[in-house]
């Protein structure tokens, strides 16, 4: 089974930047990390998990939550089995545990961006999370 591990969290001052990484383990059962779309979520105590950003298997298509748009950038390096979340202009409201999740679904067709955003993804894998704390 492919596994996910997040890293890169930490303590940063407001206005600062962090880059999170989601690393997938090697292939199993014919699936490799590059077969999966990867999403980033975040969660704070007492609140529901919140979607942040998503990227398709190739890295060609991505989309963001309104709170992340313009400040965060999701990218991937399939050769390194890694998806990144570059977070800039951080505010204390970005403080949370950040998780990555993987979905193996080829049913979206050629218009992944449109079809994915109008559906409810079913995630096959979750990482354990990495804490991001932004001080004011």
SSE layout:
Blueprint: E1 4-7, E2 10-13, E3 18-24, E4 37-43, E5 50-55, E6 62-64, E7 72-77, E8 82-87, E9 96-103, H1 112-117, E10 125-126, E11 130-135
Parallel strand pairs: 2-11
Antiparallel strand pairs: 1-3, 3-8, 4-5, 4-9, 5-6, 7-8, 9-10, 9-11
Write a compact overview of the structure shown.
By secondary structure, the protein is mainly beta.
What do these coordinates show?
The protein is mainly β and 136 residues long. Strands 2, 4, 5, 6, 9, 10 and 11 form a seven-stranded mixed β-sheet that branches. Strands 1-3-8-7 form a four-stranded antiparallel β-sheet, with no helix packed on it. The protein contains one helix and eleven strands; from the N terminus they run βββββββββαββ.
Rg of Cα set: 14 Å
The major pleated sheet works out as:
7 strands, mixed
Q: What percent strand?
A: 35-45%
Q: Which structural class is indicated by helix and strand composition? A: mainly beta
Distance between the termini: 40 Å
Mean pLDDT: 93
Give the overall form: globular
N-to-C order of helices and strands:
EEEEEEEEEHEE
What features would you highlight for this structure?
136 residues; 4% helix; 7-stranded mixed β-sheet; mainly beta; 4-stranded antiparallel β-sheet
């Amino acid at each position: 089974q492919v596994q996910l591990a997040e890293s890169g969290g930490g303590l940063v001052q407001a206005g600062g930047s962090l880059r999170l990484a989601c690393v997938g383990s090697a292939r199993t059962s014919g699936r490799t990390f590059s077969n999966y779309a990867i999403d980033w979520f975040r969660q704070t105590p007492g609140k529901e998990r919140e979607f942040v950003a998503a990227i398709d298997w190739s890295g060609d298509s991505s989309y963001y939550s309104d709170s992340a748009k313009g400040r965060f950038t999701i990218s991937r390096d399939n050769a390194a089995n890694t998806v990144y979340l570059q977070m800039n202009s951080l505010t204390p409201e970005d403080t949370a545990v950040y998780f990555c999740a993987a979905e193996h679904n080829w049913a979206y067709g050629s218009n992944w961006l449109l079809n994915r955003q109008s559906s409810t993804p079913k995630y096959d894998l979750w990482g354990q999370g990495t804490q991001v704390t932004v001080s004011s």
